Write a sequence for this structure.
């Protein structure tokens, strides 16, 4: 079997290195020597992190995708333009394709997977979600007996690193983001990571595999972590929660919820203890109960681990041609975000006048929202009270109506902060 | 495909119930209606936890294993006598076999898997290790690109429940064991669980899959938790560790270590936060880094989830005929237990005389053992000092020689307690 690799950067170089380092184990598992025979790079003259002496290298990626000697193409370029054309070309040439490209799968996966099925080739993408964690295989195979009740994951390492530093060291968002950029965890433009777009790509993929429906990237509601303040983090800690940036997929009353947002989760949950750049996905099945999968969500060799696992599956024939592991996809309407029921955390800055808290809770009560717990911190120099409230489980639309009303009151000194709370049990 | 089920107790009944409850999901995933057509029970007249109206039920299990209409046999009886004969009979009749029987696989798996390979049928046992957690599939498929560096698991829920209660509520072993028995977590004879035999079965299986060698159940060194005292638990807490009953498989210098023993692990490790009856397995691969798999290790429906996942794999053809996922097993010599290098926790009860601690550390130093930390608790009514010591990483044989020498000293008032410490990083 001849392998063509498109891209020999971090991930591509990692794949070549892992194949070299673990040659004997992989041979013992597959009975085959896996050789990368063809490779495409942007610039042949640039230095690489891997040895490439045995690879036929070109700057024309299409020549690899069109090469009749190549059986499997690894698309490790990224992006949704050239990468898409290359994947289509390879599939049309009856080649299996393995990719780590979440944006490509999340936004064009329906089209690409349909084409792959028509051509009777595999299009695999374990590495696209949560790096080295075999979460897609676990959903498709290990949990195949279950109705999935919940998928909730820390699926962006950059965001988790930032939130962990904010919590453990009392640092603020901007400060940690700068460090994350210096460490290479975050891009120069960090929008994809901190505004939840990267997590939304991964969540859309997880949801389709968990519930057996087409990808609906446009239905993921997405909220970033750039508005999380040090005060939110310390209120959360005081209330026995940890703030994590979660991707949540849930089927409630036949409707699919897909949402990426900062979330207060109880400190006692295993997910709350997943720190730094690590990823983890909690999956609840109606038979198996809660399960969790933890590991590195990025990095050259961790991502390579997932790419090669897909390759081994193809070589050994241990993967089906079904889309997302389902013989037949079903249509699931998506849930109107206003109808999502959730517990909420509210943070308010209010003038310290008698009856303020009573007024706030009265407005909440008018909207059928009750207060589960409340912390009021000492008055600051501007004579304002800092208040945190945890509500009962309410419809998002009701919560929004109530906070809109509270916001208009003269005693409110700043925009009310609203964050989801999930107890995950 | 006709399925024959041997045993309709907790696990067998759970399998039937999950197949019924999740009929539409499983059909959507496989494209087939899965029907349990034949069943064998000890006594037809006994009540069952599942509906069995469509199952042809007999008290003669061999008639199912011999029935030419049956394609797959689910062995859910347990034990290593009749169960073994039934599995051999079914395989000899060219039927696939799925079992949840860890004792059977750990002690007779080499013979049974060889036979299955000869007959070109599958013998699958995901449910035998860590219940519903898809840990065997993850090792075989998801991590197939890796050299495995460490497997460390909480793989006995009963033991973990007991240790969690001891730590969180300050209760003693015997007291919690009685509750575990009353709750149905522990058997009337708890030896298999609390002395680590059950965990040893599971560890032997994990090690073979991780390292690609034959099962060597007789090479697992096994130590139970019945000697763990409340004082050990509170010393551990004070030293920032949690005591967990771990199964550890590790290849060091070409030798395989397989050991089940109580272990102090840092509180900050995710494994330290796996509490109650839950199971979790930490797997370190040289490419992927640390990964962890968490879920219910027992229970009717969680175990059924794994049994049915194997069945779905057979129906979809997404499983290889390789033994443990390896084309060719290798021989790995087992490590002499005395050569295992480990950090150790020592607890000593010593007469409170001047120079006692100096004498102890001098003997340790003579054996090239240094002290990383030490706690000496206030003197008790018998005028004895309670001392806990954490050593550096040393050869087990050296540690034993040192403690044997210390033990003979007149100031030592009780048997020295020795527990492994693993930092897992």
């Amino acid at each position: 079997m001849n392998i063509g690799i498109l891209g020999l950067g971090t991930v591509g170089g990692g794949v070549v290195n892992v194949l070299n380092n673990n040659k004997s184990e992989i041979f013992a598992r597959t009975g085959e020597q896996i050789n990368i025979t063809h490779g495409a790079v942007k610039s042949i003259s640039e230095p690489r992190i891997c040895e490439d002496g045995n690879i036929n290298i070109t700057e024309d990626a299409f020549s690899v995708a069109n090469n009749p000697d190549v059986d499997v193409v690894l698309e490790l370029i990224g992006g949704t333009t050239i990468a898409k054309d290359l994947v289509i070309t390879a599939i049309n040439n009856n080649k299996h394709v393995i990719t780590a490209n979440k944006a490509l799968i999340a936004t064009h996966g329906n089209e690409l997977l349909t084409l792959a099925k028509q051509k009777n080739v595999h299009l695999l993408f374990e590495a696209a979600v949560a790096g080295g964690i075999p979460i897609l295989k676990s959903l498709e195979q290990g949990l195949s007996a279950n109705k999935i009740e919940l998928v909730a994951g820390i699926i962006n390492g950059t965001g988790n690193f930032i939130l962990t530093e904010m919590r453990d060291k009392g640092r603020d968002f901007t400060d940690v983001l700068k460090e994350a950029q210096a460490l290479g965890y975050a891009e120069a433009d960090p929008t994809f990571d901190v505004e939840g777009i990267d997590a939304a790509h991964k969540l859309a993929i997880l949801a389709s595999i968990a519930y057996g429906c087409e990808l609906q990237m446009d239905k993921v509601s997405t909220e970033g972590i750039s508005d999380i303040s040090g005060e939110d983090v310390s209120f959360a800690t005081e209330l026995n929660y940890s703030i994590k940036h979660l991707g949540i997929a849930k089927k409630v009353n036949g409707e699919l919820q897909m949402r990426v947002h900062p979330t207060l989760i109880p400190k006692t949950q295993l997910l709350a203890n997943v720190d730094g750049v690590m990823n983890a996905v909690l999956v609840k099945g109606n038979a198996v109960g809660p399960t969790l999968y933890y590991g590195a969500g990025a990095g050259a060799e961790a991502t390579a681990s997932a790419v090669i696992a897909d390759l081994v599956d193809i070589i050994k024939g241990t993967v089906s041609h079904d889309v997302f592991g389902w013989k037949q996809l079903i249509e699931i309407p998506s849930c109107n975000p206003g109808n999502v029921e959730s517990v909420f955390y509210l943070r308010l800055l209010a003038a310290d006048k008698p009856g303020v808290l009573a007024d706030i809770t009265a407005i909440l009560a008018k909207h059928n929202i009750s207060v589960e717990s409340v912390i009021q911190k000492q008055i600051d120099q501007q004579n304002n009270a800092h208040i945190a409230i945890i509500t009962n489980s309410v419809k998002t639309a009701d919560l929004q109506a109530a906070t809109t009303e509270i916001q208009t009151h003269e005693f409110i000194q700043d925009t009310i902060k609203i964050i989801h709370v999930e107890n995950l049990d």
